[in-house]
Amino acid sequence: DRAGEAAAAVHSGWMGTVLEIVPQAVAILEAAGISPSRLWAAIGPCIEEAAFEVGPEVAARFDERFVARGGYARPHVDLVAVVRDQLTRSGVPAEQIERVGQCTHQRRDLYFSYRRDRDPSGRQLSFVGFTSPEAGTP
Question: Do the beta carbons of residue 76 and residue 14 sit within 8 Å?
Fold first, then answer.
């Protein structure tokens, strides 16, 4: 949050996105006294629409606004847009939501992707915190 009182890292994946883990995380922060309007959110590296081909059973679990069918043999889902929508519906101002990183599937040089590489695949680590406890700077 802008005041530097709280920080959270949420990994949603497609299933967590369907289950609305991001709005749940915002609600937990709000219950702890952190207004969603004070939050800054970063949508980190993830699979993007062009690479996120899904079956019709997975596509059916998403709002149609986020499912692309034209130009693809199978449906594709825009997870970045879904998470951005969840954040704004939860009260996080749109101008305080950033896209950080690129498509994990397409950027083999930067990211591991189980969907792309299958097993064995590497692991990734993310960290969220404050640069200075005194400054409260996220």
Answer: no
